[in-house]
Design brief:
Layout: E1 3-7, H1 11-23, E2 27-31, H2 34-39, E3 46-49, H3 58-68, E4 73-78, H4 83-91, E5 96-99, H5 104-116, E6 125-128, E7 131-134, E8 139-142, E9 145-147, H6 151-161, E10 168-169, H7 170-178, H8 187-201, E11 209-215, E12 219-228
Parallel strand pairs: 1-2, 1-3, 3-4, 4-5
Antiparallel strand pairs: 6-7, 7-8, 8-9, 10-12, 11-12
Helix pairs in contact: 4-8, 6-7, 6-8
Length: 232
């Protein structure tokens, strides 16, 4: 049974979410404030987080939860719909961003996709330049130095590394890494790509790393030859 944390101060919304998720077989803990969420004991498989909390800003709660539980999936569920809010939330460590109101069927589909984890189409081990993506151990290294990635960042890199040099469409990436029945915006993909590029560039001094190229109107390509090189 998966353990889920709902962080929501609205009694009607929180109660409906808790009831629906429990009916789908999840062990649910409901926190009505940010401090309460941060004080909850044990680890969670997934956190469903509202941003408009009465005590702490949800973005700060997201940052603290990410530091405390790096392997936990964090899904923001909020009324804040501006593009900058989405970017800030994802940069704070969230794996996904949903805007209220959202249909329960869509919510359950998204949560199932996150809880499945993993990119089944990726080979067990990919080597491009000095970059090694090992799906069996879920580790990424550059010339032997480990690159620490969040779950979806790893899945995204593994999917691109499965076909180096090949253009992969946005819809294909969303289906393979998130869910085959993905609903809504692909902004989540753009933010994860930006973060993934930054994490890889932080290790450019260790060796050669392939570039992730943006293909406007289509998707992305992990170059077959190394593009990012350490400087002399």
């Amino acid at each position: 049974m998966t353990r889920l944390l709902i962080v929501e101060d609205d009694d009607m919304i929180g109660g409906a979410l808790a009831e629906s998720l429990r009916a789908n077989g999840h062990d649910v803990v409901w926190a009505r404030a940010g401090a309460q969420a941060l004080d909850e004991g044990g680890s969670f498989d997934l956190v469903l987080l509202d941003l408009g909390l009465p005590d702490l800003d949800g973005v700060e709660v997201c940052r603290r939860l990410r530091l405390a539980q790096p392997g936990t999936v964090i899904v923001i569920l909020t009324a804040r719909s501006e593009e900058m809010d989405v970017v800030v939330g994802l940069e704070a460590g969230a794996d996904d961003y949903l805007v209220k109101p959202v249909r329960l069927a869509e919510l359950h589909a998204r949560l199932r996709a996150h809880l499945r984890r993993g990119a089944p189409t990726a080979p067990e081990r990919s080597l491009i330049g000095d970059l090694v993506v090992d799906s069996a151990s879920r580790r990424v290294t550059v010339a032997g130095r480990e690159v620490v990635l969040r779950s979806k960042e790893f899945d995204l890199l593994a999917r691109l590394a499965a076909e180096p040099g090949k253009a992969v469409g946005r819809e294909t990436l969303m289906a393979d890494v998130w869910d085959e029945h993905w609903f809504g915006s692909t902004k989540t993909l753009d933010v994860h790509i930006a973060t993934l590029r930054r994490r890889l560039r932080e290790h450019a001094d260790a060796g050669t790393i392939p570039e992730i190229t943006t293909l406007r109107g289509h998707g992305y390509r992990l170059e077959a030859g190394p593009e990012i090189r350490s400087q002399p």
